[in-house]
Amino acid sequence: MLRGPVLVAFDGTPASRRALHESALVLAPRPAVVVVVWEAGRAFDLADIPSRAIEPGLAPIDLRTAVELDQALYEQARRLAEQGVALARKDGLDATGRVVADDRTVPDTLVEVASELDAQTLVLGAHGHGALSELLLGSTSRAVLRKAPCPVMIVRDKDHRGHGDRTRSG
């Protein structure tokens, strides 16, 4: 039996905000962890690209700038997690926040955190890409459903209500 918290993926988009709200309606007052996945080291990728490959005339990013940019991106993710926690608490979840570096893919990172925390449920918002886009680009929701160690609650963005509001799988 899964004994950990509800894990809610949050990226600040309307879909993730709605997922927080809807999950609270169904799962409150359970403990929850609001997770923001950020791409650590992304700024260093930019430092490795020759300036002419980005745009002619631009100076390359030096390592100091890359460190500062990476730290700023982490701080932005931390503030986003705090914002998600505040929304979750407002809706009745006993929430804490966690910022996790994505060293593979977002779905793999979410599944790994769910496993580490022995999550009861993993909640995420669906951004409502069309069927063709999902087929060609892949889908975070689909990958999480396939790999998650716990039940998954996917909440669609309001713009896609006609296609079903919630999907559960276990």
Automatic annotation (TrEMBL):
Protein name: Universal stress protein
CDD domains: USP-like (cd00293)
Organism per entry: Pseudonocardia bannensis
Domain UspA: 5-156
Annotated InterPro entries: Rossmann-like_a/b/a_fold, Universal_stress_UspA, UspA
PANTHER family assigned: STRESS RESPONSE PROTEIN NHAX, UNIVERSAL STRESS PROTEIN HP_0031
Protein family according to the UniProt entry: Belongs to the universal stress protein A family.
One family name in Pfam for this protein: Usp
Bilayer-crossing regions: none
